[in-house]
Amino acid sequence: MGAPTPTADDPLLRLLQRYEAQLATFNDGPAAAEQNWHNIAETTWSRTQDEILKRKPEATSAEGALRALDHVLKSELLEDRTEFADHQMIWLLIKAVRDYIARKETGDR
């Protein structure tokens, strides 16, 4: 077995992948209104979110940085960005950084 790849050692990437998978399971599961929302959240995404907040992991790979930026760009907090110039500018700045990292990672300029 060879040495682990830098991506495999990226704590932010690992946690964010787990969080997104758990959130998808929560969102695709039985309607939260029909069940105990708190218990379902605790068994899916909530603990991982708490772990991210507590550990404040750094991205140690371009893949981890891109995944984090993609997560922010898809955030509900920025859904209404066209209504507010500040939100639109933040979204555009984050997207510019994300696209720059992606280009560098693929060798494009």
In a nutshell, what does this entry contain?
The protein is an all-alpha fold and 109 residues long. It has helices at residues 11-28, 37-43, 46-55, 62-73, 85-106.
Report on this model:
Helix 4 runs antiparallel to helix 5. The protein contains five helices and no strands. It is 63% helix and 0% strand. The protein is globular, with a radius of gyration of 17 Å. The termini are far apart.
Q: Which tags fit this structure?
A:
mainly alpha; 0% strand; single chain; 109 residues; 63% helix; disordered N terminus
Helix content: 55-70%
Unreliable spans: 1-5
Radius of gyration: 17 Å
Strand content: under 5%
What structural category do the secondary elements indicate?
mainly alpha
What is the count of structural domains? 1
Detail the topology: elements first, then pairings.
Blueprint: H1 11-28, H2 37-43, H3 46-55, H4 62-73, H5 85-106
Helix pairs in contact: 1-3, 1-4, 4-5
